[in-house]
Amino acid sequence: MKKVVKLEGIPLTEGHSGLYLEVEDGIVKRGVYYALVPVRGFETLLLGKDSRVAPTITTRICGLCQVTHAIASARAVENVAGIEVPPEAEKLREVLGLAVRVYNNLLHQIVISEDLFPDKREQLSFIREVQGVRKFAGMVLETIGGEIIHSPNVKVGGISEPLEEFVKEKILSEVEGALLRLQTSFSLFKEKLDSLWKREGFDESFGNHNLDFFATDLYYGKQVKFEDFSFVLPQEVVEGSLKRRVSNLFPLVGGKPVETGPRARAVLFKGYRPKGGVKELHILRGEENIDALRRIKEILENNRFDGELWNRKTPSSDGETVGVGIHEAPRGANVHAVKIDKSGKITYYKIVVPTEINFFAVSEALKGAPATKAEFIVRAYDPCIVCAAH
């Protein structure tokens, strides 16, 4: 028997979202995952503004993905205006992006820990360990970015404040302890993930799909052509009253739906051969945390950041050329595109966030899954719905 199921208010995800499922004999034949958060209109808000304020404004899109929006925004303006950023500033931005990757990914582990730990005391012990590592990541964000949330030091042209050697050494003195804690908690996380899969009767292919992958870099972000992106309107995807309620677009890359995020980065830049299910998303996200801390240590050990890190050149362009800024956010490639006029005012702004890109991937992954287990698939993508409805 075929029926339609609508679930709204998906638990253990960031932001208000919904699921539309067409179910036959308990199995999902078609699934659509979508945002229900009201659109804030950041792209329109930026029109006519001085392009130098774009990183400050776009970082307010979200309290979790804040630094990644500031970085992508600054890089978009720099790209269109031909502003050269000091190499050391780019490295410090990479450190900030890696710190927010750890900070976000570990929050996701905390959020889903209720699924993993039937024993509440064991769950709380795990959370304490994870929070210890998040405290270190937060210290990095605050020290280099100026604040843990909405880092003000990310500017068009670089980083506004140098990193003194003694401060850098303080970070380095704590990174090994954080890495050891992270490795221990991740080992337990994988063990409990295996137990969950066994308890629920999932196989390794649970939540698989056949989509291509999209990522630009392993750690920071490389340029792409903005014309490679196109967008499907919600009215083309959903039916009935949902046409007026869904608040996200559905991006395509090269005319196709794709997956972005930790698995895409592993496939495209580490030679990883995917098994296909969502369990490996959790594992690869955890492995990225360890890689991120090691990369932070490598960057800080091999560079000095106590000189000038900010090119204060005033942005200017022709009002027609599109500048693109990319940052590989925790959830995948975060893309900002901008046009600015001769006076540096913004005439066009467009943001494509990884959760938007992954909406189609989630929908594909739902096909063939038991309807009662659909939320396990959704949660594996760690969707940031607030970003998706910017």
CATH architecture grouping: Orthogonal Bundle
Radius of gyration: 21 Å
Q: Which spans of ≥5 residues are poorly predicted at pLDDT below 50?
A: none
Principal-axis shape equals: globular
Please report the number of helical segments.
Answer: 11
Strands, helices and their partners?
Elements: E1 2-8, E2 17-24, E3 27-35, H1 42-45, H2 54-58, H3 66-81, H4 87-116, H5 120-145, E4 154-155, E5 158-159, H6 165-200, E6 212-214, E7 229-232, E8 250-253, E9 258-260, H7 262-270, H8 279-301, E10 323-329, E11 332-340, E12 346-352, H9 354-366, H10 374-380, H11 385-388
Parallel strand pairs: 6-9
Antiparallel strand pairs: 1-2, 2-3, 4-5, 7-8, 10-11, 11-12
Helix pairs in contact: 3-4, 4-5, 4-8, 5-6, 6-8
Descriptive report:
With 390 residues, this protein is of the alpha+beta class. The chain has one domain (2-388): Cytochrome-c3 Hydrogenase, chain B. It has 11 helices and 12 strands. The protein has helices at residues 42-45, 54-58, 66-81, 87-116, 120-145, 165-200, 262-270, 279-301, 354-366, 374-380, 385-388; strands at residues 2-8, 17-24, 27-35, 154-155, 158-159, 212-214, 229-232, 250-253, 258-260, 323-329, 332-340, 346-352. The strands form 5 sheets. Strands 1-2-3 form a 3-stranded antiparallel beta sheet. A 3-stranded antiparallel beta sheet has the order 10-11-12. Helix 3 runs antiparallel to helix 4 (87-116) and helix 4 runs antiparallel to helix 8. It is globular and about 65 Å long. 47% of the residues are buried.
